[in-house]
Amino acid sequence: MRRPARSSPEVTRPVCTTCPYCGVGCGVVARVTGERTVDIAGDRDHPANRGRLCSKGTHLGETVGLNGRLLHPMIGDRRAAWDEALDLVADRFATAVAEHGPDSVGFYVSGQLLTEDYYVANKLMKGFIGSANIDTNSRLCMSSAVSAHLRAFGEDVVPACYEDLEAADLIVLVGSNTAWCHPVVWQRIEAARSRSGVKLVVIDPRRTETAEMADLHLPLRAGTDVRLFNSLLAALRARGQVDEAYIAAHVLTAEGFWEGIAEDADPGAAAAACGLDPVVLDAFFDLAARHPRTVTLFSQGVNQSTQGADKANAIINFHLATGRIGKPGAAPFSITGQPNAMGGREVGGLASTLAAHMDFAEDHRDRVGRFWGAPALAAVPGLKAVDLFRAAGDGRLKALWIMATNPAVSMPDAGAVRDALAACPFVVVSDVMADTDTGRLAHVRFPAAAWGEKDGTVTNSERMISRQRPFFPPPGEARPDWRTLADVGRRMGHGSGFAWTTPAEVFDEHCRLTAFENDGRRRLDLSPLIGLEAAAYDRMTPVRWGADRVFADGSFSTPDGRARLVAVRQQPLVNHDLILNTGRYRDQWHTMSRTGLSPRLSQHRREPLVELHPDDAARFGLADGDLAVVRTAQGESVFRLAITDAQRPGEAFAPIHWTDRTASGGRTGRLADPAADPVSGQPGFKRTAMTVTRLHTDWRAFLILRGETGVQPDCVWWAAVTAPGGRLFELAGNGDPHALEALLPDGERMTAVDPARGTLRIGVLKDGRLQGALFVARDGRLPARDWLLAQLSETVETAGLLAGRAPGAAVDRGPVVCACFDVGARTILTAIAEQGLTSVAEVGAALSAGSNCGSCRPAIARLLAA
To answer: Contact 703/731 with Cβ under 8 angstroms?
Structure first.
């Protein structure tokens, strides 16, 4: 695998750690090269990735600086000592509990926490404060899969491992743009297809880059997954492919289950309900019938639904009824979105669980209470995420502690969430960043250790526990989250329960709880890891708990040891003229507090786009590149419009990443419907009724500024991304654009004004270096930004400055395709034409594009086919 070229300065001893992004859990080798610089490579010995990294992991070294870091505790707008801040938080939480009861307080935590952090938070809230009001942002991404596992297996266990992808004959991806969102898993799928001819089916309303590479794409109507998989099971039953012997031995069938499946047996009716071509649907049924070694990998397109748990159970039903589970290459496989969503599930970080895969049953409460010596163990499940913030808004919560997440952006109906935080009497935020949309509403902010400073463990999507190791000391007064929580616990009078001095001690207690009075029915049992001394904990290599395929023996974690076929029916869908689907961009992560620091990662998509089918754009009178106002019942936000036939008519897509710190629009959390799955509590981000109208502006512009800047322009619309050496703003507005000149720094100015054409161009120089540039056009025609951005790191060529390009022939590389090697579309097209390139591999050999993480290979294939 080729990687971007790097310099080779003197380096310290390499540190093996784990990537802080998605649930793939890739191993990373970090070599410190300076005070806050590090060289990043994939860990070839880590079983999850064997040296592979995606674009985000490749550029982790660009995200470890101290720009924007929170370096000391804050009470309101003033710096505070740790003791003062800790005393205040402990007092306010204790007072709320004393005056209003334990359910008057809550924690909202995150899959970005380490398992040790999660464990301490869960123990403090459920065991010693006495409420289960602790929920996690993992509620937003995988709690439907948790509920489905519990209903089917009796325990939240993922019954698969990555090796199953190589052993399968058929891989079905449901609601997963794997090439973008889990690129290293995508590489394994690509390798399996190349090596053994594994067939690939992608089920997704959008024709994503992943779908374009599939043997078969089912662009189903959003929300109809239950009908699809019920119909698949009916078709396989009609073909005699239900494994009656396996069911008889290992599965309990719900009453009326098969009668319900039979009601969905008509393939024509199923095709109509799912919005699919009957020929395509039959091809899917045929592939499933001919390839019994099937892995169904599902993600947010399944989980983020008001019927998400039923969707996941429909998938699991297909596997249980056909015996496609517990065998190499045969499993339902929920792949998580965050690095430690699984670790949070293991310790009990969801409001609906207690701890260590135990719930609130009396025997479980008795066991956990005795183990913890808990004085006030929570008796019932707590408030799930959506309800937790509603309680903050209506006065039920008197104190709320938010850790390692940004719910003012990421929650559905985020405007209401902001109102709730503003109304809550006491809000605490633990974060690495000084300025976040959520932090702006906090009464106390604690500075947390970031990736590269944290010390603990994470669990990936296949149950692999890996170490995250520090290679930098925490800057300023930043501390690990587990330590901050333990300090508060001691101040609240619970000293003996929170007396750890190292994360190894916390991890050991977590392992002992999983094993405590475990009768073998709970597959989560970390007995082999009990008793690790600090040195052994530090040396710990990746280990998968449970067997590779935990249900290979046909025994499940239910009282009778049998799995359950859960009867699920497709719920009627309300028809809307246009619906909004939300999701991720390839090179960004959540609300960009980390990836937004990387110049390379910020070039793939420089502004938030709303994507519409051409038919929808035409009926709403919209053109590609327009600014569009998207409105829902919850709020509105502005996006740049991208017209693409990859969208289904009647459906739109927008990314989740932009915040008030990075744009005046593009806020999808403000738009999403907060309606949640009644079983899992997971919000349905994928089907929000919307309208779209054009936003008229007098001019468009872009602004380039050198260095770090907190500028937030005052105009109708703006969006900003990090660029090499500075920051790039895209702008649009009405009235006189000359007011934008105030945003430019001091220096020698070069100016060109053409009132007739409505253009304004200004470059600001100092000591021969570009400090800033402002280009405005009333007709919207502006030069490419790349050459001007390059001048931030070079001695500027003044002859071409106001033209926005080098003197002579213009060279435009086009939009970035490969973020790993910074290769644009026009560069690739030119190489294809001039060198006669005919394959993705040949493009990689010529330009390196596509030869590292592989997430851009579908885009390169599209260019080759153009």
So the answer is: yes
Residues in the chain: 866
Q: Which of 779, 600, 793, 782 is nearest to 703 (CA)?
A: 782
Q: What is the pTM (predicted TM-score) of this model?
A: 0.95
Q: Give the strand pairing for 699-706 and 769-777.
A: antiparallel
Write the CB contacts of 810 (distance below 8 Å, at least 6 apart in sequence): none
Residue 415 pLDDT greater than 70, yes or no: yes
Residue where the block lists tokens 């907060």: 674
Q: Show the tokens assigned to 433.
A: 């960043």
Beta carbons of 392 and 133 less than 8 angstroms apart = no
**397 in Cβ contact with 391 (< 8 Å):** yes
Give Cβ neighbours of residue 761 (< 8 Å, ≥ 6 apart).
751, 752, 753, 773, 774, 775, 776, 802, 804
Nearest to 211 by CA among 236, 180, 177: 177
Which residue from 602, 630, 780, 621 is spatially nearest to 690, judged by alpha carbons? 630
Encoded amino acid at 590, one letter: H
Q: What percent of the chain has pLDDT over 90?
A: 89
Number of H helices, E strands in the chain: 28, 35
Cα(662)–Cα(694) distance, integer angstroms: 22
| Amino acid symbol at 340 | N
User: What percentage of the chain has pLDDT greater than the value 70?
Assistant: 98
Nearest to 388 by CA among 24, 635, 139: 139
Count CA within 13 A, CB hemisphere, residue 250: 22
- For position 855, what pLDDT does the model report? 86
SS3 category, 74: strand
Strand pairing class (759-766; 748-754): antiparallel
Please say whether the beta carbons of 40 and 57 come within 8 A: yes
